[in-house]
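Researcher: Here's a chain I'd like modeled. Treat it as a single chain, no partners, no ligands.
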Amino acid sequence: MTVRAKWRPPLALLVAGLVSLVFVLPAFAMVLVVVVSRTPGELLLSLQENWGRIALALAVVGSLTILTGYVFWRGLTKPLRALAARADEVANGAASFDVDGPYGTREVAQLADNFAVVVERLKQRSQYLETLSAHLVHELKSPLTSILGAADLLRDETTGMDSRQRQHFLGNIIGDAEHLTALSGRLRDLAQADIASGRGNADIGDLVATLAADFPKLDIQLELPLSTRFPLSRENAGIVLHHLADNALCHGANVLTLRSGPGDSIDVINDG
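Model: Modeled as a single isolated chain. Structure tokens:
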């Protein structure tokens, strides 16, 4: 992604300007009052007599300005730079986000925690996509190989197939094509359910009852309260669980267990 370059003032410059105004404006106002209330001769004489005190006051104001600016820099500018550096590390391939850095104030530390949550969710999504890709390769390889093999045999006129054999291979092609169609439909349904994640409040008891009716060969075991709710609509939650149960059954599972996972997650486990 290309980001248009645009000049923006650094935070340190804004902090320095703000701190300087806080200390300099009162001093400037006091000087202005003195200048207005005295004649030029009196003012010059006063400066000559009190130049030491004036220099000391300027030194004190300058020191306080620098000290306050350093406190702001230490508590705000430096932590934000550290936060930006950690974000750059993640953008360049770091697997995790360090939340123990010098993030200064409570708000910046909270921002760092939020970044860590986002990075962890992106990591989980990446792992999910890797697993899904491997599953797709596995699911697509067998029917595609079968279709290609059957089509190659049907195209070869030297095999001398009779009508029954041709119908057998054509039936294999149609069956594998239907399997691929069903797989693409399940992937579409999963994509729709994933997009709708977090929208809904499906009842776990109703879902398990429907699942048990659809998959009588699977022993559905529930190891979480019946009051548990899915953050999905009834339809989308059913799609997700139906897909998981169907996948478990295809891999020889007899038992499908739903139990509470870390945080608010739900683990779906099978013995296939």
